[in-house]
């Protein structure tokens, strides 16, 4: 049976490598041009080439988003850009622009065209329309339920990609002018300031509709589709997509690793341990989550309105190297931790392992009472082997 694809976001090369090492079958990135999340796009042309080489070496794939809603001037250099992407081994572009679709299909036939969720495709007739044009995959609108997806799958042969984790938009993917209005940042050209998540006072005429000490916001809870994965696999969906090119390296590692395990467990016929998967995911989440539209239309429970976020365990370091003879790990510090703190090490091949910090040394072999400086290289003795890309979180016992 063809295995479903796990598709991860990546905002830069480090995140791309992390996503692939932690189990992503494919990664989507944005270049400096034609892409939403312009602020998250750290891939220049050389980086895209390196990303493709790294992905190829690890049996993964790179897709490039070209999903702005373009004005005339945005098309400058389009043909050269597409040809470059194809030449370095990009497997697909993700776009919503009819012109970009047209040029890509004519000019770069080795690269697939995937239809961006910006077009909010939520029915099979639209899927078939784009399939007839030559589009290979539809990224379905996040407003589709499992029932909708089943129906769509029955009536189309086109490859389907479904969002299973990450931020939601309170409008149909970016069809919203809030950010343009408040801060002159265009959500459809990659600048969304998430104005729906800001704090507001909500009035009906003169009457405040909530208590004064708790503001109102109309953002949606983030999506967490854990329990929908078996059904999506059974339906024959082709790709499970994680949202979040702005998210951290640590977030990517945690989320990709957990969905990788769930997917692999399901194909292996293992018992699915949802409590474990959930406990892993919430270590990286700092926002409330829901199942979005997957199990039916959304209710008040899928919105934030007056809820607060949830605290997260803190990402404190990443392993750069481990010396098996001395049992010393070289670690890059990412957040403060100190002697006596409880840390959890985890990795693609490392089960969660706890230690109490007893000794930290710097590069000059000086003893430290804490790891204070971001990106500082420190050394710790560990009685279990770790590998490059393994990560460390601070455990906050409650
Ligand atoms: S402000 Fe909120 S609703 Fe508007 S485009 Fe951004 S995420 Fe969507």
Describe this structure in words.
With 398 residues, this protein is an alpha/beta fold. The protein has 2 domains: 5-171 and 219-305, Alpha-Beta Barrel (TIM Barrel), CATH 3.20.20.70; 314-394, Elongation Factor Tu (Ef-tu), domain 3 (Beta Barrel), CATH 2.40.30.10. The protein contains 10 helices and 24 strands. The chain has helices at 13-21, 45-57, 78-88, 98-107, 124-133, 146-154, 178-183, 229-235, 249-268, 274-281, and strands at residues 5-9, 26-30, 61-66, 92-95, 112-115, 137-139, 159-166, 203-204, 207-208, 217-220, 222-224, 239-242, 289-290, 303-305, 314-323, 328-333, 337-338, 342-347, 350-356, 360-361, 367-368, 370-371, 377-381, 391-394. An 8-stranded parallel barrel has the order 1-2-3-4-5-6-7-12, surrounded by 5 helices. It has a 6-stranded antiparallel beta sheet with strand order 19-18-24-15-16-23. Helix 9 (249-268) packs antiparallel against helix 10. It binds iron/sulfur cluster (SF4). Iron/sulfur cluster binds at residues 169-171, 174, 176, 178-179, 187, 192, 194-196.
Spatial extent as radius of gyration: 22 Å
Q: Indicate the percent of residues in helices.
A: 25-40%
Whole-number average pLDDT?
91
Number of strands: 24
CATH class categorisation of the largest domain: Alpha Beta
Bound molecules: iron/sulfur cluster
Shape: globular
Strand content: 25-35%
Level-2 CATH architecture of the largest domain: Alpha-Beta Barrel
Number of helical runs?
10
Number of domains: 2
Structure class: alpha/beta
For the largest sheet, list the strands in their spatial order: 1-2-3-4-5-6-7-12
């Amino acid at each position: 049976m063809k295995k479903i694809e796990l598709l991860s976001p990546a905002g830069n090369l480090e995140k791309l490598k992390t996503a692939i090492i932690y189990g992503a079958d494919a990664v989507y990135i944005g270049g400096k041009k034609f892409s939403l999340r312009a602020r998250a796009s750290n891939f220049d042309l050389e980086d895209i080439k390196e990303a493709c080489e790294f992905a190829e070496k690890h049996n993964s794939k790179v897709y490039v988003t070209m999903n702005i809603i373009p004005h005339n001037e945005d098309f400058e250099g389009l043909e050269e850009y597409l040809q470059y992407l194809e030449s370095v081994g990009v497997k697909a572009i993700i776009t919503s622009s009819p012109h970009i679709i047209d040029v890509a299909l004519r000019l770069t036939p080795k690269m697939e065209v995937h239809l961006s969720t910006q077009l909010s495709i939520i029915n099979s007739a639209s899927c078939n329309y784009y399939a007839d044009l030559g589009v290979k995959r539809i990224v379905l609108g996040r407003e589709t339920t499992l029932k909708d997806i089943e129906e769509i799958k029955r009536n189309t042969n086109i490859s389907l990609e479904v969002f299973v984790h990450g931020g939601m938009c309170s409008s149909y993917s970016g069809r919203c002018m809030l950010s343009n209005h408040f801060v002159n940042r265009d959500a459809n050209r990659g600048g969304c300031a998430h104005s729906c998540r800001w704090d507001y006072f909500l009035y009906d005429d003169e009457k405040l509709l909530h208590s004064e000490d708790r503001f109102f916001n109309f953002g949606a809870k983030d999506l967490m589709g854990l329990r929908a994965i078996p059904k999506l696999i059974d339906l024959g969906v082709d790709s499970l997509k994680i949202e979040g090119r702005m998210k951290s390296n640590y977030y990517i590692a945690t989320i990709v690793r957990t969905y990788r395990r769930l997917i692999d467990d399901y194909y292996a016929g293992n018992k699915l341990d949802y409590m474990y998967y959930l406990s892993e995911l919430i270590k990286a989440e700092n926002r409330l989550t829901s199942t979005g539209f997957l199990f039916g239309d959304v209710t008040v429970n899928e919105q934030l309105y007056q809820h607060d976020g949830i605290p997260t365990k803190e990402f404190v370091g990443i392993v750069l190297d481990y010396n098996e003879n001395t049992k010393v790990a070289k670690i890059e510090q990412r957040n403060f931790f100190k002697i006596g703190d409880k840390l959890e090490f985890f990795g693609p091949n490392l089960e969660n392992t706890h230690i109490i910090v007893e000794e930290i040394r710097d590069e000059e072999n000086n003893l430290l009472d804490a790891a204070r400086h971001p990106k500082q290289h420190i050394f710790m003795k560990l009685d279990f082997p770790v590998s490059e890309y393994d990560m460390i979180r601070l455990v906050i016992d409650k």
